[in-house]
Write a structure and sequence with these properties.
By secondary structure, this protein is α+β, with helices and mostly antiparallel strands. It has five helices and six strands, in the order ββαβαβαβαβα. The chain starts with a strand and ends in a 14-residue tail after the last helix.
């Protein structure tokens, strides 16, 4: 369980919550790397918006790092929330870009669902299952923690 304490305009997380956020950062990194290898990562804000407008049911996660395009981020978040797509906020677009091997500064990555051969069932990795559990625990929280991606 994540314990948050409101202190004026800042939100502080308990020490145990910080450890959870740090561990989730490693899981996020592995999920991004795996999806990128399997060509299931949709990288970039405009590419993400385009993919969501065509087939939102194929998207499992939306990873968002802060960018200067705040209006598109807010709209993207609302769209994902409406379609039950898990949103995970990340601390740094540069680390996100490095993780994906991108030369551009990226603020958004969607992860498409993985399907079993010849079936209509999702085939989740252990890391994806862990992230789903994490997101479900955070679903109703008014302030979502920002996950720190580890350095390479």
């Amino acid at each position: 369980m994540v314990v948050t304490v409101e202190t004026g305009s800042q939100t502080c997380f308990s020490e145990s919550a910080e450890r959870v956020i740090s561990a989730i950062g490693l899981t996020v990194r592995e999920t991004l790397l795996c999806a990128n290898r399997e060509n299931r990562a949709v990288v970039g804000l405009s590419e993400s918006i385009h993919a969501l407008s065509r087939t939102p049911q194929k998207i499992l996660f939306c990873f968002l790092a802060s960018s200067t395009d705040h209006m598109h981020e807010v709209l993207l978040e609302a769209f994902c929330f409406e379609h039950d797509i898990y949103i995970i906020k990340l601390d740094n677009g540069e680390k996100l870009s490095r993780t994906l091997g991108s030369n551009q500064l990226e603020s958004c990555v969607l992860i498409q669902k993985r399907w079993s051969e010849g079936s209509h069932c999702e085939n989740l990795t252990p890391d994806e299952n862990e992230l789903i559990d994490y997101c479900e625990a955070q679903w109703e929280e008014p302030v979502k923690p920002i996950i720190k991606l580890p350095e390479k």
